[in-house]
Protein backbone atom coordinates (compact mmCIF):
# COMPACT_ATOMS: atom_id res chain seq x y z
CA UNK A 1 0.00 0.00 0.00
CA UNK A 2 1.48 3.34 -1.04
CA UNK A 3 1.03 6.18 1.43
CA UNK A 4 0.54 9.78 0.33
CA UNK A 5 1.08 12.93 2.35
CA UNK A 6 -2.25 14.19 3.66
CA UNK A 7 -4.05 10.86 3.50
CA UNK A 8 -5.77 9.35 6.52
CA UNK A 9 -5.17 5.62 6.94
CA UNK A 10 -5.51 2.92 9.55
CA UNK A 11 -2.50 1.16 10.98
CA UNK A 12 -1.47 -1.12 13.81
CA UNK A 13 0.68 0.03 16.75
CA UNK A 14 3.96 -1.87 16.47
CA UNK A 15 6.05 -0.06 19.06
CA UNK A 16 5.72 2.40 21.94
CA UNK A 17 8.52 4.61 23.24
CA UNK A 18 8.54 7.53 25.64
CA UNK A 19 8.79 9.95 22.67
CA UNK A 20 6.22 8.44 20.30
CA UNK A 21 4.37 5.52 18.78
CA UNK A 22 5.42 3.41 15.78
CA UNK A 23 2.56 2.41 13.49
CA UNK A 24 2.63 -0.17 10.68
CA UNK A 25 0.84 0.99 7.54
CA UNK A 26 0.90 -1.89 5.10
CA UNK A 27 4.57 -2.60 4.31
CA UNK A 28 5.74 0.71 5.81
CA UNK A 29 6.22 1.88 9.38
CA UNK A 30 5.76 5.47 10.48
CA UNK A 31 6.06 7.32 13.75
CA UNK A 32 3.56 9.42 15.67
CA UNK A 33 5.45 11.91 17.83
CA UNK A 34 4.17 12.29 21.41
CA UNK A 35 2.88 15.79 20.54
CA UNK A 36 0.72 14.32 17.76
CA UNK A 37 -0.97 11.57 19.81
CA UNK A 38 -3.84 13.66 21.21
CA UNK A 39 -4.82 17.26 21.85
CA UNK A 40 -4.47 16.72 25.60
CA UNK A 41 -1.21 16.71 27.56
CA UNK A 42 0.46 13.29 27.30
CA UNK A 43 2.46 12.28 30.35
CA UNK A 44 2.46 8.55 29.60
CA UNK A 45 1.75 7.40 26.02
CA UNK A 46 0.60 4.02 27.29
CA UNK A 47 -2.51 5.72 28.69
CA UNK A 48 -3.60 6.47 25.11
CA UNK A 49 -2.39 3.51 22.98
CA UNK A 50 -1.51 -0.15 23.42
CA UNK A 51 0.57 -2.59 21.40
CA UNK A 52 -1.40 -4.12 18.53
CA UNK A 53 -4.14 -1.49 18.69
CA UNK A 54 -5.56 -0.30 15.36
CA UNK A 55 -5.38 3.50 15.09
CA UNK A 56 -6.33 6.11 12.51
CA UNK A 57 -3.41 8.33 11.46
CA UNK A 58 -2.81 11.17 9.04
CA UNK A 59 0.39 11.12 6.97
CA UNK A 60 2.17 14.42 7.66
CA UNK A 61 5.37 13.95 5.67
CA UNK A 62 7.66 11.43 4.03
CA UNK A 63 11.38 12.21 4.15
CA UNK A 64 13.77 11.37 1.28
CA UNK A 65 15.15 8.58 3.51
CA UNK A 66 11.65 7.07 3.70
CA UNK A 67 10.78 8.11 7.26
CA UNK A 68 7.04 8.67 7.63
CA UNK A 69 5.73 11.27 10.10
CA UNK A 70 2.20 10.55 11.31
CA UNK A 71 -0.43 12.27 13.45
CA UNK A 72 -3.28 10.72 15.39
CA UNK A 73 -4.77 14.02 16.57
CA UNK A 74 -4.98 15.44 13.02
CA UNK A 75 -6.76 12.28 11.86
CA UNK A 76 -9.72 13.07 14.11
CA UNK A 77 -12.94 13.87 12.29
CA UNK A 78 -13.41 17.63 11.79
CA UNK A 79 -16.84 17.55 13.41
CA UNK A 80 -15.25 16.31 16.62
CA UNK A 81 -12.95 19.32 16.60
CA UNK A 82 -15.94 21.64 16.05
CA UNK A 83 -17.78 19.96 18.91
CA UNK A 84 -14.83 20.70 21.21
CA UNK A 85 -14.77 24.34 20.13
CA UNK A 86 -18.47 24.76 20.80
CA UNK A 87 -18.09 23.06 24.20
CA UNK A 88 -15.25 25.44 25.04
CA UNK A 89 -17.39 28.42 24.03
CA UNK A 90 -20.21 27.22 26.26
CA UNK A 91 -17.84 27.11 29.23
CA UNK A 92 -16.52 30.63 28.59
CA UNK A 93 -18.18 33.51 30.40
CA UNK A 94 -20.34 35.73 28.21
CA UNK A 95 -17.97 38.67 28.69
CA UNK A 96 -15.08 36.95 26.87
CA UNK A 97 -14.37 38.48 23.48
CA UNK A 98 -14.51 36.09 20.51
CA UNK A 99 -12.40 37.83 17.90
CA UNK A 100 -11.59 41.33 16.76
CA UNK A 101 -14.96 41.92 15.10
CA UNK A 102 -17.03 40.99 18.13
CA UNK A 103 -15.20 43.19 20.67
CA UNK A 104 -17.43 45.48 22.67
CA UNK A 105 -16.02 48.10 24.99
CA UNK A 106 -18.09 48.31 28.14
CA UNK A 107 -16.62 50.81 30.57
CA UNK A 108 -17.47 50.43 34.21
CA UNK A 109 -19.95 53.18 34.79
CA UNK A 110 -20.54 54.54 38.22
CA UNK A 111 -24.13 55.38 38.93
CA UNK A 112 -25.08 59.01 38.54
CA UNK A 113 -21.77 60.25 37.09
CA UNK A 114 -21.82 62.27 33.91
CA UNK A 115 -19.18 61.91 31.23
CA UNK A 116 -17.42 65.07 32.47
CA UNK A 117 -17.32 63.70 36.04
CA UNK A 118 -15.86 60.37 34.85
CA UNK A 119 -13.27 62.22 32.73
CA UNK A 120 -12.15 64.43 35.62
CA UNK A 121 -11.88 61.38 37.89
CA UNK A 122 -9.79 59.62 35.23
CA UNK A 123 -7.46 62.65 34.93
CA UNK A 124 -7.04 62.82 38.70
CA UNK A 125 -6.20 59.11 38.96
CA UNK A 126 -3.82 59.37 36.03
CA UNK A 127 -2.00 62.36 37.55
CA UNK A 128 -1.64 60.52 40.86
CA UNK A 129 -0.14 57.50 39.13
CA UNK A 130 2.27 59.64 37.11
CA UNK A 131 3.47 61.57 40.16
CA UNK A 132 4.03 58.28 41.99
CA UNK A 133 6.11 57.00 39.09
CA UNK A 134 8.15 60.21 38.97
CA UNK A 135 8.85 60.01 42.71
CA UNK A 136 10.05 56.43 42.51
CA UNK A 137 12.17 57.23 39.46
CA UNK A 138 13.68 60.26 41.23
CA UNK A 139 14.55 58.17 44.31
CA UNK A 140 16.34 55.67 42.13
CA UNK A 141 18.37 58.38 40.42
CA UNK A 142 19.47 60.03 43.66
CA UNK A 143 20.56 56.68 45.07
CA UNK A 144 22.63 56.04 41.96
CA UNK A 145 24.25 59.47 42.08
CA UNK A 146 25.41 58.86 45.69
CA UNK A 147 27.47 55.89 44.63
CA UNK A 148 31.10 56.56 44.04
CA UNK A 149 32.64 55.35 40.80
CA UNK A 150 35.04 52.48 41.29
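^ Assign residues to that structure.
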Amino acid sequence: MDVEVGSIVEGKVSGITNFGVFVEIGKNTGMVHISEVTRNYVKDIKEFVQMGQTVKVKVLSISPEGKIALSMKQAEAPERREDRRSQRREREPASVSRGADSFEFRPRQQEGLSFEDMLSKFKQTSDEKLSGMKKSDGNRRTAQSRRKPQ
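Strands lie at 8-16, 20-25, 28-33, 54-62, 68-71.
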